[in-house]
Amino acid sequence: MIVNDVEIGAGRRPYIVAEMSGNHNGSLDRALALVDAAAEAGAHAIKIQTYTADTMTVDVRHPRFRISQDHQLWGDQYLYQLYERAHTPWEWHEAIFEHARGRGLTPFSSPFDRTAVDLLEKLNAPMYKIASSEITDLPLIRLCAGTGKPLIISTGMADVREIAAAVDAARGAGARDLVVLSCTASYPAPPEHTNLRRIPVLAEAFGVPIGLSDHTLGIGVPIASVSFGACLIEKHVTLDRGDGGVDSAFSLEPAELGSLVVESERAWQALGTTAIGPTEAEKEGLRFRRSLYVVADVRAGDVVTEDNVRSIRPTGGLAPDAIGLVLGRTFTRDAAKGTPLTWDLI
Q1: Smallest Cα–Cα separation from 154: which of 346, 324, 17, 26?
Q2: What CATH number was assigned to the domain covering residues 280-345?
Q3: What residues does the AFP-like domain cover (predicted)?
C-alpha cells in the first residue's frame, strides 16, 4: 500500500508508527508534544484512538466490567473509568491531525464505532487501524474498508479462523490495501509470547504484508521482527515514563523511538540477498588476504627457508598452503624483501 507517497509492504523499509494512545495524560499540549517527539525521532506516522467511554462500554460496576485484580497495569479498574481517563477528546483530533501533517507525519486512528469513523472521515484520515479486541467486530471492519482507505488489522488474541474472517470481511467490503499485524495483546507483553516466527506464516496464509504491533519493553523485539519480514512496526510512545500514564510503562521514550527508527532500517538493510561470496564492500579486503612472500633479501641459489619466505598479507604470491612445496627449493634469481613468491622464482 502507498500512504502519503510512502510505500508499505514486503521488501520495503519498515514503516514506523508511534502510538499515542492515552499517554497525553489528559493534556492537549502534551499530545502535541508527543507529535513533535515522534516527528523528531523519524517516525512515519502518529496514531491515536477515537472513542469515548460511552462508545466503548457502559458505566456499570459489575465484576464482568472490571479488569482482573492481578493485571500488571490496570488491575481492579472498571472499563468505563479506564476509558474515561485514557480517551483522546474528539475536539482535539483536528488539532492533532493538523499539527502532525505540519511536522511531516501521517496522522491516523483506530476507530471503535461508526461515530468515530464519521469523525475521522471529516478529518480526511488517510487510513484506519482495527484494534486487536475489535477483530471480531466484522461490521466495523466492513465500515472502515468501505471508505476505500488502506486498512491495518491487528491480530492480538485472534486465532486463524478469526483472522481469516476479518481479512475476508475487509476484502469483501472493498479493501485493496491491507496490512495485518502480528500482535500479543498483553500489556506489557512478555517477549517469549511474541512468537515472531508466525510473521512469515501469516504472510503465506493470507497473502498480505505483515507488520508487528509490539507491547514488549524496549526495541529488541521489533528490530528482530524485521528479519522475519515485518514491514510495519507500531510502538506506544510517551514523553517520559516517569510521568505516568495509562500505557507509559511499556511505551518508548523519544530517544528510544529514534533508536528504533534507525536500527530497524539498519536491520532491514542487512537482510540483503541469499548470495554467498564476496560483496562489493569486501573487494578491498580481498587484496589483503595472506599469500607467500619473500621476507628477507635473497640471491639466486639461496635455499627457501622459513626465515626468508612466510605467509603474510597481502595477496599476490602463492597460496599459503604451498609452503610445504617450496621449502627446501632454491631461488632462481635475486629477490628483494617484499617480493611475492611465484613459481618462476624457485
Answers
A1: 17
A2: 3.90.1210.10
A3: 291-346
> pTM value?
0.89
For the chain, give every residue range classified as CATH 3.90.1210.10: 280-345
Q: Could you tell me where in the chain the CATH 3.20.20.70 domains are found? A: 8-51+87-271
Helices 114-122 and 138-145 pack at an angle, to 10 degrees, of: 20
Superfamily of domain 8-51+87-271: Aldolase class I (3.20.20.70)
Question: Shortest CA distance to 330 belongs to which of 338, 319, 341?
Answer: 341
Going residue by residue through the chain, which has 346 residues, state the pLDDT in tens, using 9 for 90 and above: 888 888 999 889 999 999 999 999 999 999 999 999 999 999 999 999 999 999 989 889 888 888 777 766 666 688 888 888 889 999 999 999 999 999 999 999 999 999 999 999 999 999 999 999 999 999 999 999 999 999 999 999 999 999 999 999 999 999 999 999 999 988 899 999 999 999 999 999 999 999 999 999 999 999 999 999 999 999 999 999 988 788 888 999 999 999 999 999 999 999 999 999 999 889 999 999 999 999 999 999 999 999 999 999 999 999 999 999 999 999 999 999 999 999 999 9
